[in-house]
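Key idea: predict the complex, not the pieces.
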Amino acid sequence: MTLKEDYDLLLEKSKKAIIYQMIQAQLGWDFETYMPSKGGQQRSMQFATLAKDVHKLLTDPEIGELLDRIKSDPEYTSLSETQQRNLYLINRDYERQTKIPSELVEKIAKHQVIAIETWKKAKAAKDYEMFKPELKKALDLQKKRAHYLNPDKHPYDVLLDIYEPNMTSAMITVLFNQLKEGLVPLIKKIQSASNQPDTSFLTRTCSIPIQEKLATDLSNVVHYDLDRGRIDTTEHPFTTGYYQDVRITTHYYENEFDNSLFSTMHEAGHAIYEQNLDEEFIYQPLGQAASLGLHESQSRFFENIIGRSSEFWEFYMPKFKEITGEIFADIDNKTFLHAINHVKPSKIRVTADEVTYSLHVIIRFEIERDLSEGKITVDELPKIWNQKYKEYLGVDIEDDSEGVMQDTHWAAGLFGYFPTYALGNIYNAHILHVIRKEMPNYDNLVRNGDIKPILAWLTKNVHKPASLYDPADLMQRITGEPVNTQYFIDYCTQKYSQLYGF
Amino acid sequence: MTLKEDYDLLLEKSKKAIIYQMIQAQLGWDFETYMPSKGGQQRSMQFATLAKDVHKLLTDPEIGELLDRIKSDPEYTSLSETQQRNLYLINRDYERQTKIPSELVEKIAKHQVIAIETWKKAKAAKDYEMFKPELKKALDLQKKRAHYLNPDKHPYDVLLDIYEPNMTSAMITVLFNQLKEGLVPLIKKIQSASNQPDTSFLTRTCSIPIQEKLATDLSNVVHYDLDRGRIDTTEHPFTTGYYQDVRITTHYYENEFDNSLFSTMHEAGHAIYEQNLDEEFIYQPLGQAASLGLHESQSRFFENIIGRSSEFWEFYMPKFKEITGEIFADIDNKTFLHAINHVKPSKIRVTADEVTYSLHVIIRFEIERDLSEGKITVDELPKIWNQKYKEYLGVDIEDDSEGVMQDTHWAAGLFGYFPTYALGNIYNAHILHVIRKEMPNYDNLVRNGDIKPILAWLTKNVHKPASLYDPADLMQRITGEPVNTQYFIDYCTQKYSQLYGF
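Result:
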């Protein structure tokens, strides 16, 4: 076979796995949205069958042979940049899949179910001791996994690399320390400011049909294409899909209209990324987001950078009032804006505001890092967790269900995943800085609700490159410098000093 | 390997194919209900990939080897009746599948998506010329399929056999001619009767939430289990699923409440069949309905035999009036019953009454038969269609969207499928005749809304046997005689002479 034939065959194999993964995602969406309550057993048969077959597709020994042959082909350098990148990504995934013994894969899958069930019970019972043995085991299994993937690298770096390619614990430590140094004093200033927002109107009753109308209208405003997507409801909002079919979910609470409004903007940001990947890369390894951190930067760009800006509400307030009728007729822009940007240190990450959110993530990162380096033990976790919440956020944790057991991630074996949430903030403030430089009329565009040129910029620079580059390289190309936390600190300082008047 | 090991391995292979077919059905449901308008291309990639792989599973040469080994095993007769039937069904499907090249399977799957999309557009534009090339291609692909399946049999018989095992065009011609002979004069009598119903109240505005409430309530009344199902909306109602997850669709029109009411009863009847197949047969070839004709008998049993009977409305009218409030407060049972049993030759099959319905089906059957025999061409279709509607039903077709393009079936490549709709009528009148003999209190049960014993009878005799027998054999076991159209003609004559007073 010629090099071209080898390459095409390899891409064909990869395409098939991608299509099966799309099918898995679609069944997962249905499982979360519309599946009848007693349909679980049949669905789990479908999931198990697909999981086994996808694993088989991804570990097909012929992939290894094709990769070896292509790499040693004298014509290799005649391949284009995108072709070489596809090969790099296929190789990376193939190694990830084949290096771990299937017994360990099975052990992890089985333990995940047990650990999540135990976590649910322990959380309900506020009993960390019940969860502890499973957490220990989950961590142990992930360390083993990391060892198989790369015995020469620090296990935490190996796990991080899965979610944020080529990012290391050392790099994140530097970034997060800078963030902490910038944000902790800022939060103190905000808390001691005399100008605190009136948030009482946020709990006014806003019917679900009105909230649905807002969600649809806002999706249109930010150009989340609903001909290639849709909005449904689930307890935990999420985005799933690819190119022409990218669906989001939200949840509607009658007395928390802002909850669905911003979760819609957040998930729309994720969906916009998927909808605007380069069409040329569809069904190829290249046709995926660069990293979870980049993904989170886009969701938070639409949720916060645009969605919670004064400029956006200058534009959107009349429409908002038109849709909501009399409910918020007496609320002026300034009151509204301050309320939706209320900074308040709290115990729960998922409902945290834009400024304190990163500190929640930093706490989890520091604990994961120190756990994996053996500096702390699972036994000490609640104590250390509570100390850090007190130290960074000034918050007292009363029981472990709202402390160390609040997130499902660790029970699910997701170590190295949390940092991507805060990297999203860092990336998007940096990206905003560049946009403002390159598009001096950015603020006016937002003020006019003219999101299209901004989306075009993001598409060209962030979405379209898809997985052509590792996230740090992509950020370097977009911004012309290494990732820099200062932009996020500056963005927060400027925005919140204005809101809180200091 | 022992006989038992061979059998188990064969069933394991069959199970995997069944699970993949469940996944196909689920993606099909999503395609019809919630898929974004531009998601078709990606979905067609998924369909094509799955179709290819299902074909591969079903044509696995090891199945042929296992079947051969089992059939020639001296212990073969030690297998149970159900085991032998599973082997028969696996063998039948294996032969059906191995005879068709996988390229053709893939072509058909891909073309189906395109043809349905084109049909939708052409129907909206009332433009048969837009649809014609795709229809030609669909028919051509099905003829090719039939030729591969059995080059010695008439292609139309080959296609018929897929939906109604062992039924032939000649047998159907006999049954349908009897039906025509019985029904055409009856329809004339009905039309010339002086006692015509007042149907004006049927168009009173009935809001969609009220209609949704009716749909849910009626599902509960007939024991369509919504914990193992759900009701959504599509233009063309359908049922899909299996055992624990059987979904139906309907459509709501504010000024045609009876449309959704009876379409819900109809689809609920289909769903009840699937929900009550013998649990022991799940994931086995046996775990499926005996035929589409039997399936249709169950949907029409709940829609017509129960749903349009005077006894049922004696029971349900108070609840109906409770749910619909003041809308129909002035309508008495007799007026209501006559209106929902209004016999009126019309253009559209799916909304046709119980008596004229079969003539719609007979028209399609005759066209399909003549098309496949080359007696007519796709170019002539609208002309022939309109002629037959004039001749059999006295109806003038004004445009092709309400004529030849009214059904999705031909776009979906379903030739040989239509006759099963009228077979359903024939079967269920025959079944009703037996129920009344075996359960003399049948009418009183319906009068009391006590559907459970009737459902138990149907489950025991019709649903539970699943695919243990071919449809004609199952009917023989249920009724003790060969399928007989006279019961349907008698049922119609008795019911409608009473309603129309002749």
